[in-house]
Amino acid sequence: MPESKEKKSLGILALAGLEPYQEKPGEEYMGEPQLEHFRKILNAWRNQLREEVDRTMNHMKDEAANFPDPVDRAAQEEEFNLELRNRDRERKLIKKIDKTLQRIEDDDFGFCDSCGIEIGVRRLEARPTAELCIDCKTLAELKEKQMAG
């Protein structure tokens, strides 16, 4: 299996080379050790996404060919379009990661934007860019579903 495929299947924690955070008794929520843990996760995730962007640019430059057969040309264009859509989603995710890193610097990370309670270390390890606690996110998804249906 190629290295890039292997790396993609790794979880965010494994990508950062970290173990799940073990809270110490009496430890303050989102104290410096926890914030540093999430900084490492977010920076590793952002670096991995940037590597994918570079890899795509090189791939598209190296693989670009003017095939005489229209079917071959169409297949290559479709492959490039799919890659570009994926990179666009990753570009948006990089912006969200940058926003989350700024929230850490602003001391606004780890608390729900809607109700203000702690989001929780495990939820943030699963989705480091989360801005809502699980209850508020569930309610938001239900409202979205009702508006769409």
Automatic annotation (TrEMBL):
Primary localization: cytoplasm
Subcellular location: Cytoplasm
UniProt subunit comment: Interacts directly with the RNA polymerase.
Entry coiled-coil feature ranges: 46-107
Residue ranges occupied by any Zinc finger DksA/TraR C4-type domain in the UniProt entry: 108-141
Keyword Zinc-finger: yes
SUPFAM superfamilies linked to this entry: DnaK suppressor protein DksA, alpha-hairpin domain, Glucocorticoid receptor-like (DNA-binding domain)
All copies of domain DnaK suppressor protein DksA N-terminal, residue ranges: 34-104
HAMAP family in alphabetical order: DksA
Chain residues that bind Zn(2+): C112, C115, C133, C136
Entry-linked NCBIfam families: dksA
Family matches, as PANTHER family: RNA POLYMERASE-BINDING TRANSCRIPTION FACTOR DKSA, RNA POLYMERASE-BINDING TRANSCRIPTION FACTOR DKSA-RELATED
Stated role: Transcription factor that acts by binding directly to the RNA polymerase (RNAP). Required for negative regulation of rRNA expression and positive regulation of several amino acid biosynthesis promoters. Also required for regulation of fis expression.
Keywords of the record: Coiled coil, Cytoplasm, Metal-binding, Zinc, Zinc-finger
ZnF segments: dksA C4-type: 112-136
Family indicated by similarity: Belongs to the DksA family.
Entry-linked Pfam families: DksA_N (PF21157), zf-dskA_traR (PF01258)
Name by which UniProt lists this protein: RNA polymerase-binding transcription factor DksA
